[in-house]
Structures are given as structure tokens and as C-alpha cells.
């Protein structure tokens, strides 16, 4: 298989968990192959071979398996003859997520949205709505999104709005990591209270209230995008 090198496949499974299709997504060396973030979708399984025939997962394999599981993807190792498959992590099952309506996320931040309706001086920013929609799509699809936005975009609301909607729809937490205490205090002391009235009017009060009630346990590490 690939001249004794490791090869990475994304595989689809049927309802019984049996592999149905496999496509090559990366080729590596005799000892390793890339498992790129976002390379597989929820419900898929990432499979790679061990040319040695020893299917024991390495430490790197275990780290990749943990990351993929968080994205709804399974992870397995196969031998070169494709006769033995060792499943490190099964494809996660048992929970159906309610996807965000991306048009609603965009509308929330628009000129006639629920935020603008409660704040007369609210400013509609196309770049802010585009960022919020992209983050909402990442919530729906899983994976990793790396976004860069300049001053004046309104980044805080762009990630808080889809995060709060996701929390309300799926009862799931989002961790926001900040580089400074000042930004942390801005989020808890200004931005979340700013969103509380419009989100209460939209029936999403609990998601904001729970964050504000737990503000004393907030943490600060790494600047958000």
C-alpha cells in the first residue's frame, strides 16, 4: 500500500457501522501521515494503515482520535492487506443536534433584527453578520474555523450570537477564551448584558442568564479570533 507508506482515508459507514466507501485524503511516510482538521464530516470514520502490521495506536494516534471524536468522527487503523481493522474510536452516535438557521443568525445582527429592535443606536455591519454566519456554519458542520477580523467589525457579538443560539437549541456550552481580563470583563459586564434584552424577547433568556450567573467561574487564556 503506497510503497510501504501510511495512507489516510475518509470512510463512510452504513447504519450498522460497516464501511461502505473509502477515499484517499493524505499520503505520508512509513511512520506517519497527516490527519488534517476538518478533513472528515460528522458520521465519517478516518482510517489509516500501519505498514508494520502492528495495529497498536501510537500516542499521536490517540490524540488524533480524541480530537476527531469531539467533531463526531470515528478513527481506526488497518493493516496493509485490508483484512484487519482496529477501531480506536467508534463514530459517535446517540445525539441529534438542532442546526442553527444561518439566516436567523444573520438577521439577529441586521438592521431590522432582534438586537436593532431593542437598541436605537445599533449599527448594522455586513462584516459582522458574515463572521457570525461563518461561525454558525461551523457549529452546524463541526471542524475548525480560523477567522481574522479587523477593528470595528464587532467580533464579540459575531461569536456570542451564534454561540448563544446554539446553547439554547442544544443545551451545550461554548468556551470563549480571552487573552486579557479586560476583554473577559467586557464580555460579561457589557456584551452579554447588551444581548440579554433582545434574547429574552426572543425566548432565549436562559442561555444568557446562565452565563451571567456563572461569570465568577470565567477563565481567561488565548485571544479569540
Written description of the protein model:
- Helices cover 36% and strands 14% of the residues.
- The protein has a five-stranded mixed β-sheet, with helices on one face.
- The two termini are 40 Å apart.
- It contains six helices and five strands.
- With 225 residues, the protein is α+β, with helices and mostly antiparallel strands.
Radius of gyration (CA) equals: 21 Å
Beta fraction? 5-15%
Stretches where pLDDT is under 50 for at least 5 consecutive residues are 216-225
- Mean of all residue-level pLDDT scores: 85
* Helix content bin: 25-40%
What is the general shape? elongated
Describe the main β-sheet briefly.
5 strands, mixed
User: What is the terminal separation in angstroms?
Assistant: 40 Å
Strand order of the largest sheet: 2-1-3-4-5
Task: Based on the model shown, name its key terms.
single chain, 225 residues, alpha+beta, 5-stranded mixed sheet, 5 strands, elongated, disordered C terminus
Compose a concise summary of this entry.
With 225 residues, the chain is α+β, with helices and mostly antiparallel strands. The chain has helices at residues 59-70, 102-108, 126-141, 155-170, 181-201, 205-213; strands at residues 7-13, 19-27, 45-49, 74-78, 85-89. 28% of the residues are buried.
How is this fold's topology laid out?
Layout: E1 7-13, E2 19-27, E3 45-49, H1 59-70, E4 74-78, E5 85-89, H2 102-108, H3 126-141, H4 155-170, H5 181-201, H6 205-213
Parallel strand pairs: 3-4
Antiparallel strand pairs: 1-2, 1-3, 4-5
Helix pairs in contact: 2-3, 3-4, 4-5, 5-6
Amino acid at each position: 500500500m503506497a510503497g510501504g507508506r501510511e495512507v489516510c482515508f475518509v470512510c463512510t459507514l452504513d447504519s450498522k457501522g460497516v464501511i461502505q466507501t473509502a477515499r484517499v485524503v493524505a499520503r505520508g511516510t512509513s511512520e506517519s501521515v497527516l490527519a488534517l482538521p476538518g478533513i472528515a464530516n460528522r458520521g465519517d470514520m478516518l482510517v489509516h494503515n500501519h505498514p508494520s502490521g502492528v495495529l497498536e495506536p501510537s500516542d499521536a494516534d490517540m490524540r488524533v482520535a480524541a480530537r476527531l471524536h469531539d467533531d463526531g468522527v470515528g478513527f481506526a487503523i488497518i493493516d496493509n492487506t485490508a483484512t484487519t481493522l482496529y477501531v480506536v474510536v467508534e463514530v459517535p452516535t446517540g445525539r441529534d443536534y438542532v442546526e442553527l438557521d444561518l439566516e436567523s443568525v444573520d438577521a439577529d445582527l441586521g438592521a431590522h433584527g432582534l438586537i436593532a429592535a431593542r437598541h436605537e443606536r445599533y449599527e448594522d455591519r455586513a462584516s459582522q453578520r458574515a463572521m457570525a454566519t461563518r461561525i454558525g456554519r461551523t457549529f452546524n458542520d463541526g471542524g475548525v474555523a480560523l477567522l481574522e477580523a479587523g477593528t470595528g467589525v464587532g467580533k464579540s457579538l459575531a461569536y456570542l450570537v451564534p454561540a448563544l443560539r446554539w446553547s439554547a437549541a442544544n443545551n451545550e456550552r461554548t468556551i470563549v477564551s480571552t487573552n486579557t481580563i479586560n476583554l473577559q470583563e467586557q464580555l460579561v459586564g457589557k456584551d452579554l448584558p447588551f444581548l440579554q434584552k433582545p434574547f429574552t424577547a426572543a425566548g432565549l433568556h436562559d442561555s444568557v442568564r446562565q452565563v451571567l450567573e456563572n461569570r465568577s467561574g470565567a477563565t481567561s487564556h488565548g485571544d479569540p479570533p
